[in-house]
Structure formats: structure tokens, C-alpha cells
Here is the input.
Amino acid sequence: MIARALRQTALLLALALLPAIVSGVVQLRWDDAEPLAAGEVRAATVREWGAKVQWVDARPRDKFAAGHIDGALLLNEDEWSKLVPAFLDAWDPDLPVVVYCEGGSCEASHAVARRLREELKIGNVHVLKGGLTAWPVK
Amino acid sequence: MRLLCLLSLLCFGPLAEAELKWEKTVQQFQRVPDDKAIEARYTFRNTGPTPVTIKSLRSSCGCTTAKLDKKLYAPGEQGEVVLRFTFGDRKGSYLKGVTVTTDEKTAEPVVLKLFVEIHDPLTIAPALVFWRKGEAAAPKTVQLSTEAAQRVRIKSVTSSNPGITATLQTMQPGMQYAVSITPSSTAQKDAAEITVQTDFPPDAPHTYTIHARIK
Here is the structure.
């Protein structure tokens, strides 16, 4: 009786494992091939640009202080008016600007990128797809 | 076989309806930056026969907080979640969300959505003018405009740098202005912040900034 129950449990687990493996493989590939939203750029593309990038950190000040991508400038919407002058002092019109936030469902990078493009009319502004999850800070 | 049936039922049993019923899960507002923040209330009632515990409220942004008086709601009891969105220096359209998770075993988390349009009465286009080093030191123009419903008079424009001057032109008083910005030279990197003083709102008139750079 116990042996039979164990066999049935093993069968159920095996049945559940197969779709889980297929789903995992599909999702990994999907992540890689997930289409870019308007204005987004993949981490792989930014790596190809090398050091010739102006990073912008769109997160709150405390998170920026706790760690950020080397060379990144703090520019968020909580303190937009206060932070824009320092960003513009450092900004090089010949370099692409790449804005990031936490990653996942974070929207701050898109909001900051939109304001750079629309209010300041800065071209060549991108949002890092996946945020810091795609470019972990060491 | 009975075990197989039981496990299958546990895994694939039909989903029951949520017991927490929300009056509305989406709200929309128009605000001005001076409002500083908005609070939206989302009311709900436990329509089921058992108590429901709200386990977590997860916000999509640090600028949005969610407040709940208590966690446990008896059958028939009503409650509310208060979302507070702090504007900071935000302008434009925003969608903020808070995900509500309960202890109802079969119910999906509910997402409370808050759409807010933060509309500034004065539009500055563009808020940045720049010249490259060695470029002709020709004037560049910034347009200031308001919507027909809102008059905003520009009282003055002042440059922080005497090497980059700003001149105000009134096209349509209270509605349309132009600021002409001219560097004396573009030989060196330079910067100026042009302060635009308005008369609106009368009790605490706003100032705006136009940025000028020589790169």
C-alpha cells in the first residue's frame, strides 16, 4: 500500500517536473529575446560601447549612496531641479546617456529619460533594460 | 488511486472567488506640482464567511506609500487602503501601483492603480540651450507658453553669469513669451542658469530655470 502510494507520488512529481523544465528553458530564452521597449538598450550593447557612456542613476539618493555604477551621476525626479545643473555640467553631448534604476518593475529610469529627451531636448538617451539586475554593482 | 485523486484535486482544483471586494481598484486625478502629494482611498469589504488577513502591501515606487489601519477583517467588515503619492519634482503622467496580498488561499493579489497627471501651468521649450566650443556665439531662443485657461505673467529673466545674457520678449502677455540667450564667447566651457520669475500663483509665485551651457 505504502509502496503504491510512493509510486503514485513519484509519478505525479515526474509529471509536474517536465512542464517546469520546459517552462524554465522557454523563459530563459524569452528573457534574452524579450523585445526592447521604446528607448531601451540591452546591457550587452552598452558593454560594446565601452567606457564611452554617461551613466545616470535615477534611484533615490540613499540607494545611490549605498552603491552605483562607476561614474554614474545621480539624477532622480525627487530632486530634479536641484540635480539637473550638476548633471549638465558633467554631460558630454558626444556621449550616449544610459539611465538605470533598480530593475524589475521600476519606472524611474523611463521617467528620467523621458524628461531628458522632452524637457532638455537631449538626444541619444537610453534606458538600461533590466536596470541594475542587468548590470550588478560590485 | 485515492491519493492520486486527492493530490490532483489539490493541484488543479477550481479557483474560488476572492472574498475581499474592492469598490474600485483604479483611480485617476489631475494635479499641479504645488499640490506636492495626493492621497487616494481604496475601500473594500470582506464578503466571505471567514476572516481575511491582508499580508502585504507592495508599492511600485519609493514615492508611493500605502497605509492600512489594521490587517485582520471579519466577515462583512469594511476597510480602506490609503495610497499617498509624493510628487517631489515630478511633472507629466504617472501610473503608480500597490499590490495587495491576502491570506485567501485561492485569490490572486490585487493591484491598486493610481493614474496622476501633474500639469505645470507654464511650458518651457527647451529648458536647455547649449553651444559647442568654437561654435558661432549666435543667440538661441526658448519659448515660454501657457494654456488659454491659465495666465502666467513673466516678470523678469536673470542670468547667473554676465558672460551669457538673457533677454525677454513678450509675444502675448500672460500667454506667450520668448527668451533669447546669447553667450559673449564660445571659446571656453561655460555655464549659466537663467531664472524666470513669474507672478503665478499670486501668494507664492513660481520661478523656473533655463539652463545654458558651452560644451
Observations:
- The helical segments of chain A are 2-33, 43-49, 61-66, 80-90, 108-118.
- Chain A touches chain B at residues 5, 8-9, 11-12, 16, 60, 76-82, 84-85, 88-89, 91-93, 105-108, 111, 114-115, 119-122 (CB under 8 Å).
